[in-house]
Amino acid sequence: MLRGVLGKTFRLIGYTIQYGCIAHCAFEYIGGVVMCSGPSMEPTIQNSDIVFAENLSRHFYGIQRGDIVIAKSPTDPKSNICKRVIGLEGDKILTNSPSDFFKSHSYVPTGHVWLEGDNLQNSTDSRYYGPIPYGLIRGRIFFKIWPLSDFGFLRDSPNGHRFSDD
Amino acid sequence: MFFSGSLATALKIECIVEQTYGQWWQSLHRTMLRGVLGKTFRLIGYTIQYGCIAHCAFEYIGGVVMCSGPSMEPTIQNSDIVFAENLSRHFYGIQRGDIVIAKSPTDPKSNICKRVIGLEGDKILTNSPSDFFKSHSYVPTGHVWLEGDNLQNSTDSRYYGPIPYGLIRGRIFFKIWPLSDFGFLRDSPNGHRFSDD
Asked: CA A47, CA A72: separation in Å to the nearest integer?
């Protein structure tokens, strides 16, 4: 009897590993459903919204200005952040708050991106911790699936003035 | 055990296809296409399954890596082959003195191989030995300070600053080629770079 039980256990473990690996690769290379929390992307993404993220753009280096991305937090490697890409490498970025008298610019270094939340008053982003390396980006959010009242593709940035004009 | 399980899975896939496209499938029965299509689906199924398992093994357990460049001499020479494990990264067990592989902060398509000199909160010497005054800085939260063992010929955190922990991909702990240098890796030859409190 023991042999039968052992055989079944191995088969079960084998199936679990196989399908676990396939599911993991699907999430990592194709995309998945994500629940966002926090106020930093309002009004585009509210707290507890459920969105769909795709991971293909990251691997093909197709992230563009205006995309909303999920990235590993540079200050806490265990958590993720969800912000909009304001500048790519080489772009000129406004780094001062609107209340400053003089505008100050800086350039995004090679291999980095500048992220900002849509809710500028309540967002800890690159204005606080600087540009983050492109390697931290995990995926791109492009579609909201919950709440149903807001179902569909995501809006453009409400802060169009943050994008630098050359 | 894997082969019989995969065969059962592949046969299940074939059954589902048969139920969904009943009539179309029946017409194919009359042609030779069925045999070829069946074999193709099975092959694709196997490839996806074992590709995913291999990828997860490399990502979560470890793999063999070939290093290039002079920045880690004499510990790791150009074209050495080493063994890297990825468990420490996931369990946040990277320590001072570990040699890590990380995504380059200046080029996301390439990897770098350096030694961890400081973890978050550590005090780091940021000046070159020729400076008269020592200057220190602290490693920010969630970052690490990397330096190559070959200080004269290494582009590392002294150039691009501390890198986020999230860029680290694995830890190198064993060299397997050349055989004259087979074995666990030596400690840093630059012990003085580790700050003394």
From this structure: 19
